[in-house]
């Protein structure tokens, strides 16, 4: 598939999810997090791959992906040349340590040297929309394929390769939000730290996401696992 580098701002007339994601990228000052190390996290000894990530957006929005889904640039999905559809992969931006978990549902990128093509939403969460590409490491998450969807939801406010950054965000959020959690997830020999707030159902998670977005946080609604 061809790589689109079109930069698309979120618009006010989109769906609720689009609105939540759009609000999450509004510039708004708030206390800074603990700075990420300038040294990229060490490569894990387990299954991993490094290379250049790109992203694709509006040119493919609404088209069918290689596994016959309808591509939604606001979902956390990605294209990979060989990984089985449904595989969940932790993608770490090696320039800033930010990480996002994506599900493989498409094939590509077909550009030499590139290892993964992220959806717009995924690219935004690791701060690579502006540059268009970034050096990344891919860590396959074990035991993800074919699992049943959980009943609970959560609003994720951050995912970090460094626990100190996750704990700083946790402390910041606890000033206004209850039940903030830092959950570790293993990917190969690496550990990532997700900052999440559980919600009992989808409507509750959407209301919480709106509130966090209005406070200037980047958020996404995800299944609570």
Summarize the structure in words.
The chain is α+β, with helices and mostly antiparallel strands and 225 residues long. It has a domain at 37-140: Barwin-like endoglucanases (Beta Barrel), CATH 2.40.40.10. The protein has helices at residues 16-24, 120-125, 163-173, 202-214, and strands at 48-56, 77-79, 88-93, 99-106, 114-119, 133-140, 153-160, 181-187, 190-199, 220-223. A six-stranded mixed beta barrel has the order 1-5-2-4-3-6. A four-stranded antiparallel beta sheet has the order 8-9-7-10. Helix 1 (16-24) runs parallel beside helix 4 (202-214). The longest helix is centred in the last third of the chain and has 13 residues, at 202-214. The chain is globular, with a radius of gyration of 17 Å. The model is unreliable at 1-46 and 145-151 (pLDDT under 50).
The class by helix and strand makeup works out as alpha+beta
Mean pLDDT: 78
> For this structure, what is the CATH class of the domain at 37-140?
Mainly Beta
Q: Can you give the helix content as a percent range?
A: 10-25%
Instruction: Count the DSSP helices.
Output: 4
Q: What is CATH's topology name of the domain at 37-140?
A: Barwin-like endoglucanases
Q: So, the CATH homologous superfamily of the domain at 37-140?
A: RlpA-like domain
